[in-house]
Amino acid sequence: MNRRNSNIIFTTILIFSLTSIAYPQDKPSEHLAKAIDELIDVFDSNGWEIWKIPNAARDALIALGPPVIPSLFKSLDHQNPRVRNWCGVALEGIVAKYSRNTKVKMDIPKEVMLKTMKEETYGENARRLAITLAVRFNGVDAVQPISELLSDENLRVDAVEALGMLGDSSAVPLIGKAYENGDLRFRESALRALGNIDDASAIPILTKAAKDSNALIRKTAISILGAVGTSAEISLLTNAMGDEHPEVRNAAEYSLYKMAGKLASRDERDKAIELYKMLFENTDNFQHAKDLFSGTNAFQHARNIADKLKALGVEVDLQARFGFINTWMVIGPFENKDGKGFDTVYPPEQEIDLTKTYRSMGQMVKWQKATTDDVMGMVDFMKIFDPKIDVVAYATTSLTLPEEMDVQIKAGSDDTLTIWVNGEKIHAKNAARGIKIDDDVVDAHLKKGKNTILLKICQSSGGWGFCLRVVDKKGKPVVGQLGN
Fold first, then answer.
1. Are 221 and 209 in contact (CB under 8 A)?
2. What is the pLDDT of residues 337-347, one digit of tens each?
3. What whole-number distance in Å separates Cα of residue 316 and Cα of residue 282?
4. What is the pLDDT of residues 245-302, one digit of tens each?
5. 20 to 30 A from 414, CA-CA: which of 228, 237, 294, 326?
6. What is the mean pLDDT of residues 8-15?
């Protein structure tokens, strides 16, 4: 930057300082506007090379406050993106500094912002920022002028989002009227704005939208009803759990969960319990709940519901709900040095005779009963067998059914896992890992009558154990008689 331009900038900053003394902040100055225009012209040419100078000038503008807003607005559509950004940052700085000042200092920004919002000659960038600043400067006074932009095809989304930020119930009927004539994007934004306003007057609009032909609109409305709705909407949300679109079903379940919490906090205990129980019985798909509850797996979500019910004085059985098998006959340990036990055939693979004993690793091993009260049915071999490193153990149970059926066996193990059903090997996973619910999912066919399940878990070091459940094709626990 040459000396001439530097002098212009510093002279302009000096003009700002003098103007701030000569003119009160509630009276704009033609001299001030001219000074700002000159400053921007310099910046537009080559005044950006020394970054401290435009920053100092911007700080001076912020110090001057509301009187500089008209000139800054005018430059928000400048062809130079650096100029636009500089003006926008200065305007934000003025908002931050003066938004809580007296009403006298608010009159000019309010007038200018409202004028900028309405006049297309200012350009969309300036008008959008005017909407944002009007929300921050003028609060509920901006509801009416902003609502007038709901018919503006270019700014109606910005306007409805701003009305949602204002959170005033007087905007609800205005948004509702505009919603009927909007495109998909606007209608979704309008529903979210109603959610932000959080007023009962929005419920009729939301319940109607929850039955819309468009899945995105249904999903959005249903999601919001969980926060703003009342117990009167439970039936609608429950029906939505059967929607043909999974994202709508997810939203319905989430909203019902939120609503149950609201009912509990309002001392509507019986309604909360009824709702939590219904959700507990209908949480079947683990991946579904993981997507729905921000990374929490479905079993953890079910545990959360169980905790909510316990706080309300109701106990539920997580093991039974998800079909975890909690009683087994187990035997071990057998040798697994260098991981060779995975392929080694030990006696339980040749016969399951619960009366037999075998010599293994310098000791006699026999079948013994293992029962777990762990909520996910985890059998911890570390508490049963010794030694605990480089070893193998087996577990078996039987499931007697009234009819044959196709099922899924869902299991987690630490470390490896091999599964036999009625003597047929149906799964073998050689992996060093910790226990994770449903880590392995295996299709199987169970016959009518007694079905025998045998597991083999190899251990190197660290934790050692497994959990397993049997469900039908819809994810419901298979009901049968357990035994050995």
1. yes
2. 999 999 999 99
3. 14
4. 989 998 998 899 999 999 998 888 999 999 999 999 887 543 444 344 444 467 788 8
5. 294
6. 51
Sequence-distant (6+) residues with CB within 8 A of 241 are 249, 252, 253, 256, 282
- With a CB cutoff of 8 Å and minimum separation 6, the contacts of 289 are 283, 296, 297, 298, 301, 302
Is residue 260 within 8 A of residue 275, CB to CB? The reply is yes
Cα angle, residue 64 at apex, residues 112 and 139 outer, rounded to 5°: 45
What is the spatial distance between Cα 362 and Cα 470, in angstroms, rounded to a whole number? 36
Q: Are 5 and 57 in contact (CB under 8 A)?
A: no
Helix (H, G, I), strand (E, B) or coil at 460: coil
Q: CA-CA distance, 218 to 207, in Å (whole number)?
A: 9
CATH number corresponding to 3-311: 1.25.10.10
Mean pLDDT, range 361-365, rounded to an integer: 95
Which residues are registered as beta bridge partners of 368? 330
Nearest-angstrom CA–CA distance, 345 and 394? 12
**Residue 121 CB neighbour total at 10 angstroms:** 9
**Tokens in use for 115?**
């004028």
What are the CA-CA distances from residue 187 to residues 105, 160, 216, 329, 390 (Å)?
36, 10, 10, 59, 62
Residues sharing a CB contact under 8 Å with residue 302, sequence separation 6 or more, in sequence order: 280, 283, 289, 318, 321, 322
Phi first, then psi: give them for residue 238, nearest 5 degrees.
Answer: -65, -40
Report residue 220 as tokens. Answer: 């959005």
Domain boundaries, the chain: 3-311, 322-483
391-443 pLDDT tens trace: 999 999 999 999 999 999 999 999 999 999 999 999 999 999 999 989 999 99
Distance (Å, whole) CA 151 – CA 131: 15
- Does the structural domain 322-483 have CATH classification 3.30.450? no
Q: What are the helix (H) ranges across 266-311?
A: 269-282, 286-292, 298-311
17-75, pLDDT tens digit by residue?
Answer: 544 544 444 445 666 777 777 777 777 776 555 556 677 778 878 887 777 777 787 77
Flag whether pLDDT at 377 surpasses 70.
Answer: yes
Summarised one tens digit per residue, pLDDT across range 306-323 is: 999 999 999 998 888 888
DSSP per-residue codes, 84-126? HHHHHHHHHHHHHHHTTS-GGGTHHHHHHHHHHHH-GGG-HHH
pLDDT for 25-38, tens place per residue? 444 566 677 777 77
**Cα distance between residue 365 and residue 333, in whole Å:** 7
Q: With contact defined as beta carbons under 8 Å apart, do 357 and 366 qualify? A: yes
